[in-house]
Amino acid sequence: MEALRSAAQVQEAAVNSARANAARIEAETAKFDRDARRYRQLFRQGAVPAIELDTRELALVSKTRELEQAQREVEQAQRQLEQAIKRIEQSAQRVRSVSQVRPEDIVRAQTQVQSALVQLERARVELNTAAVISPINGRCSKSTRKTAKPWVPRAF
Question: Is 85 helix (H, G, I), strand (E, B) or coil?
Answer without folding.
Answer: helix
